[in-house]
Specification:
Blueprint: E1 2-3, H1 12-19, E2 26-29, E3 32-35, H2 41-58, E4 64-66, E5 72-73, E6 80-81, E7 85-88, H3 91-94, E8 103-110, H4 115-119, H5 121-126, E9 134-139, E10 144-150, E11 156-162, E12 166-169, E13 174-177
Parallel strand pairs: 8-9
Antiparallel strand pairs: 1-3, 2-3, 4-7, 5-6, 7-8, 9-10, 10-11, 12-13
């Protein structure tokens, strides 16, 4: 997320109305809108690989897989974020038009400019979602995935994965080879 050059407080309703008229996507936090910059080709390919695998897995069931154009509302008053991938299995999100409110899985593909924010402040906001069970962070620089899961004691636990590992997404009962995320992806050397 990159801050837009014009910083001024905007009410949540004004943001939603204003953003719908913009060519770019803007996340919204603490009264400010932040322009979403374009990602790299590896970043996009990783997200598409995961979306394709998840879509095949949930097809025919109650869950929906959405990509980076789907906005997540932490509350109806914000913040509002655009994760790279999300899954919602909540019936209330089936009728959603502007934003999803009940995801069980949120995925961010990391870049050098967003990694600290995605791991810190953004994750703090996502944890406010009562429906969220997993938060996955996928590196676009190396074969590395960190998945945070909400355990039975309502504590977030980290499970790291690396090359050759089988990744488990328990929120949607899905296992797949981690190499699938990086299929046809040229990582920087």
């Amino acid at each position: 997320m990159i801050a837009s050059p014009e910083k001024h407080y905007m009410a949540p309703a004004a943001y939603l109305e204003w953003e719908a008229q913009q060519e770019l996507r803007y996340e919204y936090a603490e009264g400010e809108a932040y322009a979403m910059t374009g990602g790299t080709i590896p970043h996009n390919a990783i997200a598409i690989n995961l979306i394709a695998a998840l879509r095949n897995h949930v097809r025919g069931g109650p869950c929906r897989v959405l990509g980076s154009d789907a906005k997540v509302a932490i509350t109806e008053q914000g913040p509002f974020f655009y994760p790279d991938v999300l899954v919602t299995c909540d019936e209330r999100d089936r009728r959603a038009i502007k934003f999803v409110q009940f995801p069980c899985l949120v995925v961010e593909v990391l870049s050098q400019t967003t990694e600290a924010y995605d791991r810190g402040a953004k994750f703090r906001q996502y944890r406010r979602l009562e429906s969220l069970r997993e938060y996955a962070l996928i590196s676009s620089d190396q074969m590395s995935v960190d998945i945070f899961r909400l355990n039975e004691h309502s504590k977030w636990e980290l499970t790291p994965y690396s090359a050759g590992d089988t990744i488990q997404l328990t929120s949607v009962d899905f296992e797949f080879p981690g190499d699938l995320l990086y299929e046809e992806v040229e990582l920087p050397t």
